[in-house]
Amino acid sequence: MQHTRVTGTTFMGDANARSANKPAGQPIYPILMPFPIAYFAGALVTDLVYWQTAAVMWETFSDWLITAGLIMAGFAAIAFVIDFVGGKQIRTLAWPYAAGYVLAVLLSLVNAFAHSRDGYTAVVPTGLTLSGLVVVILLFTSWVSSALKSRRHVGVGI
Amino acid sequence: MMRVLKIAHSPKLPRLALLLVATAGLGLAGCNYDGGDPRKEIGANPPLPALQQYLIPPIQIAKVVAWGKETPAVPEGLQVHALATGFEHPRSLYVLPNGDVLVVESNGPKAPISRPKDIVTSWVTWLAGAKAEGGNRITLLRGANGDGTPELRTVFLDHLNSPFGVALVGNDLYVANTDAIVRYPYQEGQTSISAPGTKLTDLPGGPIDHHWTKALLASPDGSKLYVGVGSNSNITENGIGAEYERAAVWEVDRASGAHRIFASGIRNPTGLAWEPETRKLWAVANERDEIGPDLVPDYLTSVQDGAFYGWPYSYYGQHLDPRVEPQRPDLVAKAIAPDYALSSHVAPLGVAMYTGTDLPANYRSGAFVGEHGSWDRTPLNGYKVVFVPFSGGKPSGPAQDVVTGFLDANNQARGRPVGLAVDRSGGLLIADDLGDTVWRVSSNNPRSASTN
Hints:
The complex is a heterodimer.
Chain A: H1 4-7, H2 16-21, H3 29-32, H4 34-53, H5 56-85, H6 95-115, H7 126-157
Helix pairs in contact in A: 4-5, 4-7, 5-6, 6-7
Chain B: H1 2-9, H2 13-30, E1 42-43, E2 78-85, E3 90-95, E4 101-105, H3 116-127, E5 137-142, E6 152-157, E7 165-169, E8 172-176, E9 180-185, E10 198-202, E11 214-218, E12 224-229, E13 248-253, E14 259-264, E15 269-274, E16 281-285, E17 297-302, E18 314-315, E19 319-320, H4 329-332, E20 340-344, E21 348-353, E22 366-371, E23 384-391, E24 394-395, E25 400-403, E26 417-422, E27 428-432, E28 437-443, H5 446-449
């Protein structure tokens, strides 16, 4: 934890104890945000396998992956609020990415209920469609965001 | 899909999010949550509405309250009193030839958590008061024929493994634990058994053991035992491999312990009985959940040798259930419909063909059915004991409510009826696993009641 002080420019003038409490003003939510994306993408894979094999083990994987993604999204949301209230440096998220992220989490909540059905129709077709939609939204909005960012960057540069 | 992508280009994405969430909400609201009149689903050929699949299936749990000084209600001509109370989850009853009553105190083994849904289900079960620890024992009651408390109450058999069915053949007493049939030596008049049991055969038990009760019935000649073995899931969500030899009525050879599948495709045959006129095997069974408040009606049926009753592939004959993959059209083509619908989600857990003479004449031919009560439909259904009149060995009219009042005026559950038995003097005994009581229903005509 000592190393974090090096990057903590905001609180350089404060006492050591305080800078240990607030590690360099870095927000925590960006650490948590990728977890749901990885879990939801995993759920799409296990859904696809279940669609093809009808072996319930894969549906069970999907259930837990979506649930874990939602739990991590919950933690990310809590962290975001704490970071925001605590006045941490909130890097401005590209709005398409932020909106896509929130939409993906909400759809995954619906997807968790679809997956709670018993039998094959927990996945085929509703669960699988939702899992696919979530991944498409995440991919597309992050692509749009990076395109926006690079265009802005180019514009500023010139 | 293309449309979604196109809209995503515009700065209206948050609006799209709103739209999608609203659509999902509509999807929920569009489903039918309220059941129709449950009485319409009684008898042969019940109406079967279109199947629905939910994101959040309907759940209505009756809040649990104590009986206090209340008792169940019975119609004119009958009376009811508590035979004994203070049991640990009494589930089934058996009357020995000398009139002693065996009370099987039992509950299922701890259900494993394999999906996130199991956590919710476990919580729902707990709210309904169905999580109470079972005694895993059998208590004997003696001298309880008249009104009042039994003269003797002893622990007859202890340290069992989720027992349910009991059958006596000669001096051999069989107990169907959830994972095996065990034989004990029994002499008439014995009030407790300390001898170790001998296993006759294994039964499908854990580790999942979704439907754990094993109903047991001896053939009239004593050579065979019939066992009701429930499915290991609602609708194969634990995999078809977990259903091996389940959802079936077994015929076990008493001498060798060998078994064959007598009838299959019966999701959860919880009670077995001989119809006295035709000497045919009958069963009550619990059908599948989560496809609507009015699907699928639980039933009372004769059990035909070699017949397939549909589960999991179809219900009420050949109505396909899309939740099962791979499907089996070859089996569906063989599926036959049960004889008599008891209405959806009533959860029949006990059946007794009435052969006694104590109750008034209108109850002398037919089946009493203990309906544990619904948790997944509105309005609540079951929570009572009904009588299905029989004539010529077949149901001959609508089921009549006989013992009610398990729900109070506010739809709170004071008790839930399970196993039934007819005692030696013709009274109807009811195990109540929520009120931890055994109730006795008898004729309120004193002359008739004193014939014991």
